[in-house]
Amino acid sequence: MADDLIVRVELRPAHGPPRSVELSLATGDFPLVVLFGPSGAGKSTLLRCLAGLDRPSAGAIHWRSCTWFDAATWVPPQFRDVGFVAQHGALFPHLDVAANVAFGLDALRSAERAARVTEVLDRFDLGALRHRAPATLSGGERQRVALARSLARRPSLLLLDEPFSALDHPARAALRADLRRWVRELGLPTLLVTHDPAEAMAIGDTLAVLDAGRVRQAGPVGEVFEHPRDAATARILGVDTLVAATMLHAIDGRGVVRAGERDLAVSAPDGLTGRVLVCVRAEDVVLFARAPDDGRNGAPGRVVRIDDEGAFTVVALDCGYPLRARLPRRVFGHLGLRVGDEAFAAIDARAAWTIADR
């Protein structure tokens, strides 16, 4: 399958070190690709190069049949057929909602432009706000208008740079659900930058994990989150525990490792041998005040730290190796555990996967 999007660029700023970014995506990766990674990974740089807001020093950018940048080509932003929405939307404060949405539609005849604006306002549930000024809108409403303005031009590619980060949780959840629906209805290829794992899981089709300008892993969102292929990717994706262990045997996708002084059942690629890392998310660890009698998979440990995270409590344990568990606050309260207490950490074998310890 041919790649729809190819970005391989280098920027050499006047101050600071050069930066390079690479990304290739095929038709099947869209409509909604999430770019995920730590600060400085190159996510926003990639979007800005695609939008034409930053001009690379070298490299190439190809979108479908168009070359936007190479050694002999530079297509200015206004000719790239791209929609771009940043964190704060950047609406024109002197224009009302309808006029903001109409901005950039000058090539259309007056009647066609008016019809397009009405169509977009209706799709985004903004009809009642069409004569309102941006200053009178909530944060969620302003971002909704910014998205409507970007889509009114019917771009071939939509770029979203953390568009929900400034919103409160209810507004963020509602808007991302709407965005997911709009993108699918329109069949619009979209690249979304986020730092929020829950947001990536809720909205994306494909997840591309970026680090230092390179894609460490890309694939269906659930697959990448559940099975990072190396330790660095696992840490970027927020895996709480990586346990050094020895693989005893692995067959039919299941294995047994020796971790600390105890055997642990895990998910494992067939044939994996030697030293491995066992990846466990804190929310997949279930704590018991004492070891169950049913021979449950897991390990005894001692509570070494308790952190309150509001609705959740995070418990750090020493099981012969460090292990973290994240429990609903009420559930933890019923356990009555304190620092220094013994506990049993149960781990579903399907939620503990292994990667080679390279």
Comma- or semicolon-separated keywords:
OB fold (Dihydrolipoamide Acetyltransferase, E2P), 5-stranded antiparallel beta sheet, 6-stranded mixed beta sheet, Rossmann fold, 358 residues, alpha+beta, 9 helices
Short summary:
The protein has 358 residues and is an alpha+beta fold. Helix content is 24%, strand content 37%.
Q: Helices and strands in order, then pairings?
A:
Layout: E1 3-11, E2 19-26, E3 32-36, H1 43-51, E4 58-63, E5 66-70, E6 73-74, E7 82-85, H2 97-102, H3 110-123, H4 139-152, E8 157-161, H5 169-186, E9 190-194, H6 197-203, E10 206-211, E11 214-220, H7 221-226, H8 231-236, E12 241-251, E13 254-259, E14 262-267, E15 274-280, E16 285-288, E17 298-309, E18 312-318, E19 322-328, H9 329-335, E20 342-347, E21 352-356
Parallel strand pairs: 3-9, 3-10, 7-8, 8-9
Antiparallel strand pairs: 1-2, 1-4, 4-5, 5-6, 10-11, 12-13, 12-15, 13-14, 15-21, 16-20, 17-18, 17-20, 18-19
Helix pairs in contact: 3-4
Give structural notes.
The protein is of the alpha+beta class and 358 residues long. It has two domains: 3-231, P-loop containing nucleotide triphosphate hydrolases (Rossmann fold), CATH 3.40.50; 239-356, RNA polymerase II/Efflux pump adaptor protein, barrel-sandwich hybrid domain (OB fold (Dihydrolipoamide Acetyltransferase, E2P)). The chain has nine helices and 21 strands. The strands form four sheets. It has a six-stranded mixed β-sheet, with helices on both faces. A five-stranded antiparallel β-sheet has the order 2-1-4-5-6, covered by helices on one side. Strand 17 and strand 18 (312-318) form a beta hairpin. Helix 3 (110-123) packs across helix 4 (139-152).
